[in-house]
Specification:
Structural class: alpha/beta
CATH class of the largest domain: Alpha Beta
CATH architecture of the largest domain: Alpha-Beta Barrel
Oligomer: single chain
Number of helices: 11
Shape: elongated
Radius of gyration: 24 Å
Number of strands: 13
Helix content: 40-55%
Strand content: 15-25%
Order of helices and strands: HHEEHEEEHEHEHHEHEHEHEHEE
Length: 300
């Protein structure tokens, strides 16, 4: 599956803000090590300290490039590759002050995104042989959504809507506010632009029947038992085989296989993002450091 990295016009604004948050009024430690008339270069590498799926290396590279275009960040593994503990996943070289100043922001992003990709892969592997697609949700960290959803792609999931403007999803509170599924669909259909689709969340077979009657494009089966879900899938397929069916609600590694086998098209879960932990990565600076400006020895 091809994973799409956000374009630089979007990515750079995020990264600059996160760098500013970390740097503040200046990197006191790094600035104290080097005089302003020195350009000291060094080399280093990134190391995996626990096994998992690697994600975010191109984004980490961009962090360093924003600090100094002379920094070279070369991934030594493929984005989305499963790596064992001890694997060197990237090499980098360039002005040492930029390597040190960008280290934490770059590593934080790499660890967070790799953790999400690793958990996503575990879920995706459970249903890899079935004709069903794992999708993520909008349960993301504010400010990090576009990157966290990128990481789920790397891990093997498909993105659900990125935001409220991507598609119509009529959930339980919308239904309550509108006075019922039928009224909600009818009201929304009058105002949405072409070609937005309408998805409706259902919790009972009666609600599925109403969603079919009002011609929803996608029907979500939310928090249903496997037995009820099987009945709902059969009902929908017999009515209109073009309607897409999504299962959601309390999907775990133990339950996703049974849910997927009901015949739904998609299984959505927030777990790859909300239940993942960071994958432990580390950056190591090597000792082959040269003072370009004065030919000095630099740091040892």
């Amino acid at each position: 599956m091809q994973s799409v990295i956000p374009p630089n016009i979007i990515l750079d604004n995020l990264l600059k803000n996160w760098l500013l948050e970390d740097i503040g009024r200046g990197d006191r430690t790094t600035a104290g090590l080097f005089s302003t008339d020195q350009v000291i270069t060094g080399a280093g590498y990134w190391l995996v300290k626990e096994s998992g799926v690697i994600a975010g290396l191109p984004i980490a590279a961009r962090v360093f490039q924003l600090l100094d275009e002379k920094v070279n960040f070369l991934p030594t593994v493929t984005e989305g590759e499963w790596c064992e503990s001890g694997t060197v996943i990237a090499k980098l070289d360039g002005p040492l002050d930029s390597l040190l100043t960008g280290e934490r922001v770059a590593l934080n992003l790499g660890m967070r995104l790799s953790g999400i990709a690793t958990m996503t892969r575990k879920y995706a592997d459970k249903i890899a042989d079935l004709s069903v697609q794992l999708v993520d949700t909008r349960k993301t960290t504010p400010g990090l959504r576009i990157l966290e959803k990128y990481a789920t792609q790397v891990g093997g999931a498909k993105n659900h809507r990125m935001g409220l403007d991507d598609a119509v999803m009529i959930k339980d509170n919308h239904i309550a506010a509108a006075g019922g599924i039928g009224k909600a669909i009818a009201k929304v259909r009058e105002t949405i632009p072409y070609p937005l689709t309408i998805e409706v969340e259902t919790e009972t077979l009666a609600e599925v029947e109403t969603a079919l009657e009002y011609q929803a494009d996608i029907i979500m089966l939310d928090n249903m038992s496997v037995e009820v879900m099987q009945q709902a899938v059969k009902m929908i397929r017999q009515n209109n085989n073009r309607i897409k069916i999504e299962a959601s609600g309390n999907i775990t590694l133990d339950t996703i296989r049974n849910v997927a086998e009901t015949g739904v098209d998609y299984v959505s879960t927030s777990a790859p993002i909300t239940r993942s932990t960071w994958l432990d990565l580390s950056m190591k600076i090597e000792k082959n450091i040269t003072n370009i400006a004065g030919g000095g020895r630099g740091l040892e």
